[in-house]
Amino acid sequence: MEDTVSAGYSSGRGFLRRFRIDLLVLVVSCCIFLPLVVSPPHLMDDVDAVQAQIARNMLQSGDWVTARLDGIAYLEKSPLIYWIMAVSFKIFGVHDWAARLPLAIINIALCWVTARFAMWAFDRRAGVYSGTILATCIGIFLFTRILIPDAALTLTIVLALWSFLRLLDDSERRRTTWFLVLYISLACGLLLKGLIAAVFPIAIAAIYLVITRETSLRELAKRIRPLSGLALLLLIAAPWHILATIRNPPYFDWTMHSNPGEYHGFFWFYFLNEHLFRFLNLRYPRDYNTVPRLWFWLLHFVWLFPWSVTLVAAFRNSYRPVSRAGKTRLLALIWIGFVLLFFTLSTTQEYYSLPIYPALAMLLGSDLATREKYPWSGRLVLSLILGTSLCAIVFLLAYNAHATVHGDISNALTQNPDMYTLSLGHMSDLTLHSFAYLRLPLVLAGCGLLIGIIATLRARRTVAVVAGLALMMIVFIQAARLALVAFDPYLSSKALAEALNRSEPGLLIEGDAYYAFSSVFFYTNKSALLWNGRSNNLEYGSSAPNAAHVFIDDNTLKSLWSSERRTYLLIYGSDLPRLKDLLASEFKVVASSGGNYLLTNQ
Predict the structure, then answer these.
(1) What does the alpha-carbon distance between residue 48 and residue 359 come to, in Å, rounded to a whole number?
(2) What's the CA gap between 130 and 361, in Å, rounded?
(3) Is 356 helix (H, G, I), strand (E, B) or coil?
(4) Each residue's pLDDT tens digit, 387-416
(5) Pick from 232, 287, 328, 484: CA 20 to 30 A from residue 210's CA?
(6) What is the Cα–Cα distance from 55 to 75, expressed in whole angstroms?
(7) Domain end among 434, 461, 485
(8) What angle is formed at CA 230 by the lines to CA 216 and CA 161, rounded to 5 degrees?
(9) CA–CA distance, 538 with 27 (Å, rounded to integer)
(10) 382 and 365 assigned to the same domain
């Protein structure tokens, strides 16, 4: 009887401890991600508003199979992220914050699952550290501030690999639960990001098994149940792929195209062009850039900052698969190496390596959990970096102390369109004077850095340093969020959309590819003619037989502009001189924002 009571009491205490850990990780994650739901206030042009508009189009049209923009099939992405946003719109209404809410919840869930994984593999302290590290590193903020599915993909990979380890664990009692989690995660990943969502976990698990020889093939099949799992995976993921192939078949018109057979339907574009040819850097159209391989690797010290200062030390722990901790470290090492090698051999964007962040966070967290005192080398490096950064902020504030600001921040920026195919390309637009518009974010960032410096120099115990650095990053990321608010007129065309909504009805033309003013389409829910916009992600779909006729050339623009019909034109400020030469007629500026214009012919 006493043993039963004692066991119940111990179990109750264990539950309370786990609850406190869960609560702590959730609070830190919510402080990072929930403010981003409502601020910056508007969706940005390019991918941000495009993703939201696709979700709205699906909801309004009832076509949940083929994503469309402006009446053109958008075939390159899997649909689950659009479905999730569309459901959010259905529940809360079509708002920018409703588009962002699912991603914020996914990010919070990712940090919590990573903490739980680390807690299971190592101990409670490692769980807290791992979840906190993932939530507060620079990269997770930078690469989830826009509506892309990579954080959701990462969540499915974490769940799949954790399920794999749990199914191999002899002490695991809930095998059916983890069997379902494994294959449902793989299926959801396929519907989020395509084949790599299955390639990554399967390849990582296979390499792990080859190295460890942990179980026989018969026992492995008994635990993982590949045939039943494949049936479940196909039941979830196959219907969309089949329907998308049927509804977007190949079309060959030998008379209309200079390149016969240019449109090959969904199957060719999605499976060959988007997967194989993108990997080989042969994708059509080539509307993307790639980060140099060396920088792709080295920049992880930036994306994982401030925790990356102990990254080298974290790799010195034992990876022998003789314990649950050793097995998890080995799996994490294979996980990191395979993903980095995969993208090293392929095209790379800065955020492509996001799936390895949980593995890195667990290695860092488990290492710090074994240290009573924070490594002195880490404190030294952190102090130098944080001190230098604080000096840079003081310099920028002093440099712009008497600077005057006129209008929005676009007046102090440069434009480097060649860099915009990179995720962080707009950072190249910054000038020294532009920081005059960012005084409050700079002051707040400086306060955050000061917290980090004090924690690094004064605290000795690891738990105190981790707490101080986490608080520093919460403050610093809020400063970055406020900076994005200042950039809002430059990165979003909401002001032009509002002006268009207030204007008399008329024909809308956009002076570039759809992405250029995509936030206008979201906030007005209008379609437009695209002047010289047959490029980038809509170029392939524009050749489909059912594509809307929305692409116009110079002659059509001149004809429409000189007609009696009221016509509006969205255009970059840099294109105004060419427009004046082309039209040779008067036009009225309806509104301007961020250096861009909404014009009308009447």
Answers:
(1) 27
(2) 5
(3) helix
(4) 999 999 999 999 999 988 888 888 888 877
(5) 232
(6) 14
(7) 485
(8) 60
(9) 41
(10) no
